[in-house]
Prior knowledge:
This protein is of the alpha/beta class.
Amino acid sequence: xxxxxxxxxxxxxxxxxxxxxxxxxxxxxxxxxxxxxxxxxxxxxxxxxxxxxxxxxxxxxxxxxxxxxxxxxxxxxxxxxxxxxxxxxxxxxxxxxxxxxxxxxxxxxxxxxxxxxxxxxxxxxxxxxxxxxxxxxxxxxxxxxxxxxxxxxxxxxxxxxxxxxxxxxxxxxxxxxxxxxxxxxxxxxxxxxxxxxxxxxxxxxxxxxxxxxxxxxxxxxxxxxxxxxxxxxxxxxxxxxxxxxxxxxxxxxxxxxxxxxxxxxxxxxxxxxxxxxxxxxxxxxxxxxxxxxxxxxxxxxxxxxxxxxxxxxxxxxxxxxxxxxxxxxxxxxxxxxx
Length: 338
């Protein structure tokens, strides 16, 4: 088996990793190359795998962080993905709360055995996050920046000139210096950046697992816990309230549909969360949903399965029962379903 070029796409919650990957996949769909994506999400309801659409082999590992709770499942899933799909390139998207040093350590055996060829680690930073100490002081953010080969200011269309200037000063002061520093919006990067020089040569020393941020900031829920079967009007709810931050996901019955205006109004209440993602059915259409401090964004999705939503709450958590009732209130009436 040929060595598969492999990139880690990192960035804190809300930095736009999935948007970047989706754009890369769209741009390479016509080339005939088969790309694969391994996605890890903090919550237990996988969203990104469904949102990435067609044209790539996608494997999901929801319910924790690759760097701590998903070691063995990660290695098994990666080996199966490489063996069965034989991709031309592999992109790995860890949760925004994950530590890439530990993930790179887990990739070392695959590189040493000649299965993968580790290329540049691309890290996205929303320049506005540099104003938030909860982000800049978070160990995961610091690890992501430290191990970036290509550091990209993302969402610059939403930044002021002053915020962009702060990013450039901060990025140029980093040590060791980055191989590439750039800025962009809407996930538009040059695919050649994926093959840029990498600082990876040997396993990096990961932060010790006994540090407070590791135990408190990561889910300890069993990976891939099978959810209860949803019924019409009675979604399956998977909570991670013992993690920091708390998270909750919903799987709706495939016959549940939502009234678009009422749904978007209900989702507006989630703007205080750290991040919310979903794919939700409105009549005959499905919407890919993103919610953060910028508001609610919705666009058409090719997904035709059950509706699903994942919310990572603020440090104080959210009232999940209230969120669920607001979502159920946005369902179409029985006569309108279908």
